[in-house]
Write a structure and sequence with these properties.
This protein is mostly helical. 79% of the residues lie in helices and 0% in strands. The longest helix has 39 residues, at 164-202.
Length: 366
């Protein structure tokens, strides 16, 4: 499902998910904001930029950059600051789209689950109400990433030389932004796992028509997109780090882990439906092949009373067997694969863009 499609969610899904589904306080505040997701993201990014500029100006950090004889907008550390407003804006946009998208996925799964709107609302609460204890994993991951970032920042930017106000803001921002983002992504992963379990336990598979099962792959594609966008935001900042092998290697490993998590995100919500498809397909093939063998034996037996009817049924049975055998067990058609391929280009394009910007900055300084 495209991002634009999630804007078409009806008023119930825009407001209802915050009323009848449990969300932490920070999620509820963001989801209750008026306006489009991109407008909210841009507003959050601009607010972060203004606060950062005001804080650094008050702490004297900008003046320190000027004393180095380098324009502020060309200084590597100042350029690094631009990634943080984007990061906060990304968190707001990701939360809104992931929540609305999951709500829409569940709304579309009514036929596959054989549920009316009333029982489907109960399933929605069951899937989307992620308990606080699960989100603590996101909190721990956000703190771990913040600790890694701070280690890199202190090693590279010599932050000890800056005022206590600057250090306080950098520390606070690292913790708050990372915890928010990884709590959002943890929520989405838990929802994807619950969708997989829902498919394994309740979904009704029609091998002739797999379209009702597409919401599972839509959820995986959406989750993978936002994981890849996360790494694309930070890919250019690797070029702001000096060529110290240990730092670059650690950053490259972190980027590789992120891309691997993006690949896993595609599969997580489809694992359950894959299992159901495999079981249903195997059972259907066993039944139709048993019928084919029975009719084949009858058609070859000149004394069988149903010989002619059995011979007449065989072509249709063979065609049906071929159709069932061709049913994919993974919900990844050519369209989904092309979309995933385009998503994988996002961090690559970001990395290349970062390298080009680095060369332009070096040329300007030289």
């Amino acid at each position: 499902m495209s991002l634009a499609a999630t804007d078409e969610v009806d008023s119930e899904s825009r407001g209802g998910t915050t009323r009848d589904v449990w969300f932490p306080w920070t999620f509820r505040r963001i989801l209750a904001l008026p306006g489009s997701p991109f407008a909210i993201g841009i507003g959050a990014g601009l607010l972060s930029l203004v606060v950062t500029a005001a804080w650094f100006n008050a702490s004297g950090m900008w003046h320190g950059y000027r004393r180095e004889g380098i324009p502020i907008w060309l200084h590597p550390s100042a350029s690094y600051e631009l990634a943080w407003p984007v990061f906060l804006g990304y968190a707001a946009v990701a939360l809104i789209y992931l929540v609305r998208g999951a709500h829409r996925d569940l709304s579309q799964l009514g036929p596959a689950l054989g549920l009316a709107p009333g029982p489907l609302a109960e399933v929605r609460r069951e899937v989307l109400s992620v308990p606080a204890r699960s989100l603590r994993v996101g909190t721990a991951l956000g703190l771990a990433i913040a600790a890694f970032d701070l280690r890199v920042i202190f090693a590279y930017a010599n932050l000890e030389g800056f005022s206590s106000m600057t250090q306080l803001w950098v520390l606070t921002r690292e913790i708050l932004y990372n915890v928010l983002v990884f709590r959002v992504l943890t929520w989405a992963i838990v929802v994807a796992i619950r969708l997989s379990r829902l498919a394994r336990e309740r979904v009704h598979v029609n091998l002739v028509d797999l379209e009702p099962l597409r919401p599972f792959s839509q959820n995986g594609n959406r989750l993978a997109l936002f994981w890849l966008l996360l790494w694309a935001i930070w890919a250019p900042t690797l070029f702001l780090i000096p060529a110290e092998r240990n730092v670059l290697l650690a950053s490259a490993i972190l980027m590789g882990v992120g891309i691997a998590l993006s690949a896993a995100a595609i599969a997580i919500p489809t694992l359950g439906v894959h299992r159901r498809l495999s079981e249903t397909k195997a059972a259907e093939l066993a039944e139709v092949r048993g019928t084919i063998e029975s009719d084949r034996a009858a058609a070859l037996d000149p004394n069988h009373p149903d010989r002619t009817a059995a011979a007449t049924r065989l072509p249709g049975l063979l065609a049906y067997e071929a159709r069932v055998a061709a049913v994919p067990e993974w919900l990844l058609d050519s369209h989904s694969l092309r979309r995933v391929g385009l998503y994988l280009l996002i961090p690559v394009a970001s990395w290349v863009g970062g390298a080009m910007i680095e060369r332009l900055v070096d040329s300007a300084l030289d």
